[in-house]
């Protein structure tokens, strides 16, 4: 009986550690989306790091468009200018541009996920731009190697918004855009445009048309 009692604390400890490990894995596999949430919080820090702003936008005002809960949880902040639509991500005291912006809305929606399962999260974003031809694209910032990748696919019909089904999937929908300003944009998702997937550690984007033809 005494031996069994001695093993009991060890068993409880192992169960606790196993539970913590499973919770951590669940958190890493989760996909979290969020919209533009404008404020002026912390903008002085990023403007000091941005070396060059687009010409002709001397009156551009910088906004923090990241929900406070997201910045606290993941350690990055996204900033956007209200005239040029130039969009930047600040991570570990460095600044990275998020796609193109001239002639469009710039960055419009965001998601955080670890799609390739390397234990480091990526920050996904939709953005629109285009001089004469409006287009919407999707890219991501990888916190592992601190690089920005933009997928080749372009939606020329309008804008896109990132969505998740709550089960680990990440996709984009064609969206109706309601913009009070370039830093206050509401996107309503309609039909599915593309899915973000990972195979053999490689993150890629599969347009809905290509997915349908493959299934057929």
Structure description:
There is one protein chain. Strand 11 and strand 12 form a beta hairpin. The protein is globular. The strands form three sheets. A five-stranded antiparallel β-sheet has the order 1-6-7-8-9, with no helix packed on it. Residues 1-26 and 211-216 have low confidence and may be disordered. The chain is an alpha+beta fold and 216 residues long. It starts with a helix and ends with a helix. The chain is built from four helices and 13 strands.
Key phrases:
single chain, 216 residues, alpha+beta, five-stranded antiparallel sheet, 23% helix, 41% strand
The sequence of SSEs as H and E is HEHEHEEEEEEEEEEEH
Alpha-carbon distance between the termini?
64 Å
Q: List the strand order in the largest sheet.
A: 1-6-7-8-9
Mean pLDDT: 84
Round the Cα radius of gyration to an integer and report it.
20 Å
β-strand amount: 35-45%
Q: Percent helix among the residues?
A: 10-25%
Largest sheet properties: 5 strands, antiparallel
Shape: globular
Runs with pLDDT <50, length 5+?
1-26, 211-216
**Strands, total number:** 13
Structural class: alpha+beta
Query: What count of helical segments does DSSP give?
Result: 4
In short:
This protein is α+β, with helices and mostly antiparallel strands and about 220 residues long. It is built from 4 helices and 13 strands. The radius of gyration is 20 Å and the shape is globular.
